[in-house]
Structure formats: C-alpha cells, structure tokens
C-alpha cells in the first residue's frame, strides 16, 4: 500500500543532505556586549574570548595566528531552542589573520557577518545546518536607554524568546529589503549610503546606522537568503530590553 510517510522517508534517504538542512540543526546563541571605549559589540566566541561583531565583514579574522595565509580555528557557542542556552558546541571555522586596528582590548578578532560565503554567519549555517540568518538584539550602554549592557545574538535565526513574552522574531514591526549582495562588503537598506554596520574600516565609507532608527534594543532579523531585514518595535516601549534574554542553561 502506498504510504505518504514511507514516501517521505525514502525521499529523505535519497536526498539526505537536503533533508538534514531543511530539518535543521540548532541555532547558536551568544551574549553580546557593548565595549564602552570603542562602542563596538563583541561576543565571546573564541574559547570564551570576544570577537567583534561586524555586519559588513566578509570573513572571520583573528589578530594572532600561526600563518599569515589564514587558518582553521575552533569557535564555540551554545546551541539554543530560542529560550535558553542548551549545551556548548564547538566547530571548525576558516579564518584569516591580522585584524583591523582599534579593537577592544580583550578582543581576539572579528566575526564578520556580511553577505559572504566565508562570513561567520555562513560558516555557522554550513556547520550547524541552520539557516543563514541572524537574530540580533544589541544592548545599549545602559545610559541612553534602559537595560544593562548585555544583549543577545542567535546565529541561524529564531526563535528568540523573552521570558513570558514569546518569540519576538514573529512580532516584527516591519521589514526592509537588503542590497549589497554583489561584491560589496555590507548590507545596504534601499540607503545606498546607509549601511547596516558599526565597524568603521579605514578607507571605507563610514558605516551609518540604518536610516533614522536605532539598532539598539530592537530585535533585528537579518535573513541573508531572503535578502530581508526584519525589525521589532523599540523594546523599551513594551517593557523589555535586549538584556531580557534568559542565559541560564536549560535544565
Ligand atoms: C602563503 O601563501 C603563499 C602564496 O600561496 C605561499 O607562497 C607562502 O608560502 C604561504 N605561506 C605560508 C606561511 O604558508
Ligand atoms: C553557554 O552558556 C553558559 C550559561 O549561560 C555560559 O556560562 C557559557 O559560557 C556558554 N558557553 C559558550 C561556549 O558560550
Ligand atoms: C530562566 O531559565 C531557567 C532554566 O530554564 C528557568 O529555571 C528560569 O525560571 C528562567 N527565568 C525566567 C525569568 O524565566
């Protein structure tokens, strides 16, 4: 007898990689901290040491490594169900060597999140079998807006659940198409000049924040495949901040 279930199983066996990718692994979660002296955002992705997050960076760059030609390094973060960290995950990543100047003192490199096949985001997508997607909630410095200075990033996309408030990746206030997928280093919002980024690389156009709106204390959902940016309302306006993510390991 013809069974739809069996048919699906055999389809999956004959195209295992497709099914695995579609079925998905678990996204990775990391705390995001704003460095007071440089105003750059970092995440502890290299043996617990911070990498600077760079939305316009095409690659992972380490400040010190054995070869000038690039290296394979081990990075780590926690798998997540969107509500809590679940368990630590380490994975190999290709990195280049020699970082831009003016990194925060503790930083050991840069995690480029730009539209490139060698970006941190693309490498997480390949190794973890998750979407090439980022849910990013940047913390404030605690002065201009409420909340402390720890935000959250989920590499692989959502859900991103705040305790008792639900999945905010499904509560977007709007979306905007992204440009910049044909060789340019960053993501541009229909603001050819306004680039989504915060690292000012020498010799490049200044990285301006998105058109007039603040990136901090909003949830941004950057979908590289759909070339779309989603954003929620200002979280402080609904009694939350990016610091509300629950970083306690799930029991
Ligand atoms: C780096 O790459 C260049 C060109 O491919 C090569 O000539 C050189 O030997 C390499 N250096 C190291 C340290 O691997
Ligand atoms: C995983 O999460 C726990 C709890 O928040 C944290 O202490 C630990 O540093 C995280 N591990 C990594 C690799 O980020
Ligand atoms: C955070 O997560 C832990 C582990 O699941 C849970 O015990 C705790 O109640 C959560 N905290 C909040 C504020 O929801």
Automatic annotation (TrEMBL):
Residues 71-157 form the Xylanase inhibitor N-terminal domain. The keyword Signal applies. Residues 1-22 form the signal peptide. Keywords: Signal. InterPro entries: Aspartic_peptidase_A1, Peptidase_aspartic_dom_sf, TAXi_C, TAXi_N. The keyword Signal applies. Residues 167-232 form the Xylanase inhibitor C-terminal domain. GO terms for biological process: proteolysis. Pfam families: TAXi_C, TAXi_N. Coiled coil: none annotated. One of its GO terms (molecular function) is aspartic-type endopeptidase activity. Belongs to the peptidase A1 family. This is Peptidase A1 domain-containing protein. The lineage of its organism: Eukaryota, Viridiplantae, Streptophyta, Embryophyta, Tracheophyta.
């Amino acid at each position: 007898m013809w069974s739809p279930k069996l048919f699906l199983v055999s389809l999956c066996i004959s195209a295992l990689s497709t099914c695995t990718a579609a079925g998905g692994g678990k996204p990775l979660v990391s705390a995001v901290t704003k460095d007071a002296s440089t105003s750059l955002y970092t995440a502890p992705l290299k043996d617990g040491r911070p990498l600077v997050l760079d939305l316009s960076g095409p690659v992972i760059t380490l400040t010190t490594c054995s070869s000038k030609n690039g290296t394979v390094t081990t990075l780590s973060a926690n798998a997540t169900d969107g509500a809590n960290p679940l368990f630590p995950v380490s994975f190999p990543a290709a990195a280049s060597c020699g970082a831009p100047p003016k990194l925060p003192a503790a930083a050991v490199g840069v995690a480029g999140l730009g539209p490139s096949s060698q970006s941190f985001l693309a490498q997480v997508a390949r190794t973890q079998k998750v979407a090439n997607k980022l849910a990013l909630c940047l913390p404030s410095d605690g002065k201009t807006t409420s909340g402390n200075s720890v935000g959250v990033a989920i590499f692989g996309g959502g859900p991103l659940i705040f305790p008792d408030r639900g999945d905010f990746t499904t509560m977007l206030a709007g979306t905007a198409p992204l440009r910049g997928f044909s060789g340019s280093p960053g993501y541009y919002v229909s603001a050819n000049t306004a680039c989504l980024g915060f690292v000012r690389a020498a010799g490049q156009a200044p990285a301006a924040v998105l058109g007039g709106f603040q990136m901090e204390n909003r949830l941004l959902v950057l979908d590289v495949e759909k070339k779309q940016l989603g954003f929620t309302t200002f979280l402080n306006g609904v009694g939350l901040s990016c610091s509300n993510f629950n970083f306690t390991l799930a029991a």
